[in-house]
Amino acid sequence: MRGAGFVLAPAHPLRAACWGLGRRGSTPVVNGPLVSVLLPAHDAESTLPAALESLRRQRLERFECIVVDDGSRDGTRAIAERVASRDSRFRIIGIPHSGIVGALEAGLDACRAPYVARMDADDLAHRDRLVLQYRALEARADLAGVGCHVRMFPRAGLTAGRLAYERWLNSVRDEEDVFRQRLIECPIAHPSLFVRTEVLRRFRYRDCGWPEDYDLVLRILESGARLGMVPRRLLFWREGPVRLSRTHPAYALERFVECKAHFIAQGWLARHDRYVLWGYGDTGRTLCRALARYAKLPSAIVELHPGRLGQRIAGAPVIEPDALAALVPRPERIVVSVAGLVARARILAHLEKSGFGPESFVFAA
What we know:
Number of domains: 2
Number of helices: 13
CATH superfamily of the largest domain: Spore Coat Polysaccharide Biosynthesis Protein SpsA, Chain A
CATH topology of the largest domain: Spore Coat Polysaccharide Biosynthesis Protein SpsA, Chain A
């Protein structure tokens, strides 16, 4: 019977008060939806039917799905209306083409449940996705939201780089991992995000010229709220050449770096004008230039490249790793811009061996 199970006991009110979360609406009204699925769609007729069917099969039945038709010119609207005519949990909002931020904002205003689950029109949800993420937040009033692990598809077209990214995303297992790795990449795949509605309405989506999802996650984390993870593959994340992240200029590497630089400068480096940069490859060089626009300049650059050692770059001496601990004054802030799990592990071991605590460095690639 629809509307039956999965109403769990509310999380402890004292823990909720710690973060100002869960005080209103964390235990939903008896007959209302528990979760609002926020699903923007633009010219998605080839993938939308499967996406909506995966939601219809959810084990948690008390949800609503807000399909935002973002000015589609194909059969997207008709497909969504056909599903809604058979299943009242689906609602359609039609807007002139506004782009991803405009569509998300329009849909968010229509959400009625205490939780919002993001999903894209070309992805698929595991049948346990909503119930497991719902249970995770009901049990943890100290969390603003949670992500989940993903499986990219179709597998045949995945590059080594995309597979490595998938492995990295799925190595994030809890709120400590999310926070610690927040500047490497967005540690939560946006269509896997499941967040308290009051939190999402506080932060909203905004268009800054860089990825709106990464911007949202970093703003939530920098506020002191915490985002956790359900470490199960509950989202099937479609890969292809027409994905927004492949085609929109806001998702270019330079824009990702601009986003990181903004939050590093305004947050972690807010009280420091100087930092040590570890790594001066493509990403490190771009990050260094972006931070300079916030008047954050390197006091030294750590490198292994023999052609750079002993030189001065951006006014800073280029040194080898073993010289880092001998710098005077001792560095208080180290930004590591070297990619790869193995490289990061080696650098972490070197920093710890040299006596640098976790408060003194961040990984940003």
